[in-house]
Structure formats: structure tokens, C-alpha cells
Amino acid sequence: MRPADQGGRERYLDAALSVLVDRGVPGLTVRGVAEAAGASTLSVYARFGGRAGLLDALYERTFDSLRELLEGLPPSSQDGVADLLHLALEYRRFARESPTRYALMFERPVPGFDPDPALRSAVLRTTFTLFIARVQRVCPPGADARSAAYQLWTTIHGLVGAELLMASRRPLPDWFIPPTDEANEQMYRQGVTAMMTGLGLRN
Prior knowledge:
203 residues, 9 helices, globular, DNA-binding
């Protein structure tokens, strides 16, 4: 792809991400993205082949954003456990910053949209590799770091998903967690730390 073409593609994806964040899934149409990009609907079709191609490209872009965030976390030289907890906290922040973006990545918010299997496998593998690398630093000798990373990721994903679900609805009286960010972060830290301890992850 020529640099000019890549720049034009990024312009449309920036517009699509802005629409998703600001208007939610209902606004994520070819027309809505074209208007946000200051272009015609025909130009969107020409670049992406239609809404399905646009959604696939946006799906990939959201994972690129997560990967870039996690890759930008510099590991410390000694405390691998703290590094792993930091990664988990940044993952939570990413999800909380845009639940709609996070839903596009891991749920089925767009009726009829199922990302291309090869694309889905590639973006998940690329992102998940970052978890494996951090887990390997603190995994017990002989332990399966890939399995441990998967168990830790599913714990993180479950805690984040539950928090987002509760935040999207009216607070319940006498719930386990008070409806504050501080309480949610504390519970999240405790859950992630408990899983790491259970997996035997240590410096």
C-alpha cells in the first residue's frame, strides 16, 4: 500500500473510531463514517468494499491501540510481579476509557458482524503474546507460562466485563462493591493479585 493510500485509510479509521466512541454502534454506518471523515460514501466503499470491510479494519485498529498501549509499558529490571499488575491496570483503564470500543473487540455489539477468523486470530495472538512475555518473567520453573497467561487474562477480562456491565446500569443497593472508581479498582487489584498468587507467579 502506498504511503498516501495508508494515510487516507487512517483518516477513515480515525473517523470510524470517533463515531464509535461518540455515537456508539448505531452511528457506525458507512454514511456516518463518511460524514465524520468529510468524504463521500462512495470513497468509503472504494477503500473498504463496504461496511463489513470497514468494520474489520476498525476491529483491527482497536486491537492495534491496545497493543501499542501495552507495548509502551516499560518493564522494570527487578519487579516482574509489579509490572504484570501494572499491565493489568492499564488494560482496565483502556476498557473503561471506551466501553463501546472494548465491546467491539470482545463482544457482539454490531448485529451480523463477525470479524474475519484469520484477522481475529492474528490480533488476539499479537496482543496475548504481551501477556505471555510478562508472565514468563515470574512463572515458576517448569510451569506452562502460556496456560498461566491465559488464566490470568480471563480473570482480568471477567473482572473488567463485570465492572463495565454494572457501570452501564443503575446502582444496586447493598451490592458487593460500592459504586465508586476507588472501590472498583481495589476489588480489581485484589482479584488480579489473588489469581497471580494462585498461579504461583512471583519474582
